[in-house]
Amino acid sequence: MSKIGILGGTFNPIHNGHLLLAEQARCFYGLDQVLFIPSGCSYMKRQEEILPGEIRFQMVQLAIADNPYFCVSDMEIVREGNSYTCETITRLHAQYPEDELYYIVGADTLFQMEFWKNPEQIFTQCITAASVRQGREDSALMLQAKSLASRYRADIRFMPSLHVEISSTLVRDHLQKGTSVRYLVPERVRSFLEKSGYYRDGKESFR
Ligand SMILES: Nc1ncnc2c1ncn2[C@@H]1O[C@H](COP(=O)(O)OP(=O)(O)OP(=O)(O)O)[C@@H](O)[C@H]1O
Ligand SMILES: O=C(O)c1ccc[n+]([C@@H]2O[C@H](COP(=O)([O-])O)[C@@H](O)[C@H]2O)c1
């Protein structure tokens, strides 16, 4: 039996916060691999700010190239329509019936998941590995975890983690203003972004 971590995201673009999250989860839970899954259509986010899936996928490939435990899947990008995590997890569960799936999220996501499509399908087919900043295990979070456990039979396991204040929004802002993203994103991604001009040159670069 293997332990497979799953990190879904828009990755618009991928940054060092995502990589740190994945690596900490790998070490903390003893995962054999972490599968990065860039979304096809993040239907809850503003579409006009999101680069096409193939480009976000390519940046994830560049970002994880030096970590033998990390891999990337295009399953959401090639799927038509909105990206629903329940469909992704159901497919992975069927593909790896003997393995343990860990769906990796930042703890804040626990407050959103009940509004996603078919949360029960997600919670019952994998362990929810929630990264929580040390010292931030507050009572609201614990109550929410308890509530998800009783409503959806969720198996939520907390991972105390280091957190860096990097977001894709921050990276996009820096690129737009022409300020450095060195150390915010992996060097290969920085070089790709610099050459391509994505996020810098306005919406026409998204095509
Ligand atoms: N700095 C960070 N540290 C830990 N987890 C993070 C960090 N940034 C994002 N995540 C987590 O990574 C997953 C995917 O996030 P996503 O691709 O939406 O990135 P984002 O940086 O939050 O994007 P945006 O700024 O565009 O909203 C989510 O579970 C999110 O909680
Ligand atoms: O399944 C859903 O309904 C759903 C709704 C919102 C977000 N998600 C997933 O959650 C992950 C992080 O989403 P986001 O919007 O924070 O980039 C990404 O893999 C999304 O596809 C999933």
From TrEMBL:
One Pfam family cited in the UniProt record for this chain: CTP_transf_like
Pathway(s) the chain acts in: Cofactor biosynthesis; NAD(+) biosynthesis; deamido-NAD(+) from nicotinate D-ribonucleotide: step 1/1
Top class in the EC scheme: transferase
Protein encoded by which gene: nadD
Catalytic reaction list: nicotinate beta-D-ribonucleotide + ATP + H(+) = deamido-NAD(+) + diphosphate
Protein name in UniProt: Probable nicotinate-nucleotide adenylyltransferase
Keywords for the protein's UniProt record, in alphabetical order: ATP-binding, NAD, Nucleotide-binding, Nucleotidyltransferase, Pyridine nucleotide biosynthesis, Transferase
Record GO biological process: NAD+ biosynthetic process
Protein role: Catalyzes the reversible adenylation of nicotinate mononucleotide (NaMN) to nicotinic acid adenine dinucleotide (NaAD).
EC numbers for this chain: 2.7.7.18
UniProt domain Cytidyltransferase-like: residue ranges: 6-173
Family per record: Belongs to the NadD family.
Any GO molecular function: nicotinate-nucleotide adenylyltransferase activity
